[in-house]
Design brief:
single chain, 222 residues, mainly alpha
Length: 222
C-alpha cells in the first residue's frame, strides 16, 4: 500500500516519478506554462490525498480494533508483484521508455528533477500536517456511475417529478369537480322543478312562437 501510494505521488525511484516527470517536462519544454502548473498542482494533490493521507489514516492512525483476516495468497502475490514493478521501473525506466512509439532520450534523474519533486512532496507533507486537525474522517459513500441513480434521479424526482405529479393531481381534481358540477346542473335542470322540465303556460308558449316566426320572417326578407 505504501509503495503504491509513493508511486502515485511520483516519489523518486518509483514508476510514477519517471513517467510524471517526463510529461511535466514535455509541457514545460513546449512552453505550455498553464498546463505545467496544472500538472504540478495535480501532482501535489495526488501526493496529499493518495500518498500521505491514505498512508496516515490507514496505517498510522489510532487503532480501530478491527482485525480482518488476511487476503488470499493470490491477492498478496499480486500486490508484491506490482510493488516490485513500481520500484523496478523507477530504478530502470529504459524498458518502459522502449515501449513508446518514438525514440526517448529523456533522463529523469537529474538534480533539478529530483530536487523539484522532493520539494513538492515535502511541501505537500507540511500542508497535510498543518491542516491535520481539520482533516476529520467522515462516513461517506464514494460515488461513480451510481451518482446517476443515487443523486441525479432523486434530485430530478424532487424538483421536477413531484411538482409535475402535484400539478397533474390538481388538474385531475379540477376536471372531476367541473364534471360533477356540470352533471349536477344538467340533472337539476331536467328535474320537475328544473328549467327544462317545468310546465310552461300557453301564453308564454304562444309568445315565443310569435317571436320565432317574426325572426324567421325578418331573416327571410332580409
Amino acid at each position: 500500500g505504501v509503495i503504491g501510494a509513493m508511486a502515485i505521488s511520483a516519489f523518486p525511484l518509483t514508476s510514477g516519478f519517471i513517467s510524471k516527470s517526463m510529461v511535466s517536462q514535455a509541457a514545460l519544454d513546449g512552453h505550455h506554462l498553464w498546463i505545467w502548473l496544472l500538472l504540478t498542482a495535480a501532482s501535489a494533490g495526488a501526493c496529499l490525498h493518495a500518498g500521505i493521507k491514505f498512508s496516515w489514516f490507514v496505517f498510522f492512525r489510532q487503532d480501530s480494533g478491527l482485525r480482518p483476516t488476511e487476503p488470499p495468497l493470490s491477492m498478496r502475490w499480486a500486490m508484491v508483484l506490482f510493488s516490485l514493478l513500481c520500484i523496478a521501473l523507477g530504478v530502470w525506466p529504459g524498458p518502459l521508455y522502449a515501449l513508446l512509439p518514438y525514440a526517448v532520450n529523456y533522463v529523469p534523474y537529474t538534480g533539478a528533477h529530483v530536487v523539484t519533486q522532493l520539494q513538492l512532496l515535502l511541501f505537500s507533507g507540511l500542508v497535510f500536517f498543518v491542516l491535520l486537525p481539520y482533516l476529520k474522517r467522515s462516513l461517506t459513500i464514494t460515488l461513480d456511475a451510481d451518482w446517476l441513480w443515487r443523486t441525479l434521479l432523486p434530485t430530478l424526482l424532487r424538483n421536477v417529478g413531484m411538482p409535475l405529479v402535484k400539478a397533474w393531481n390538481m388538474l385531475v381534481h379540477a376536471a372531476y369537480v367541473l364534471i360533477m358540477e356540470s352533471t349536477t346542473l344538467v340533472l337539476y335542470q331536467h328535474r320537475q322543478e328544473g328549467q327544462f322540465a317545468r310546465t310552461w303556460s300557453t301564453r308564454s308558449m304562444a309568445l315565443w312562437v310569435l317571436v320565432l316566426l317574426l325572426g324567421f320572417l325578418i331573416l327571410y326578407y332580409v
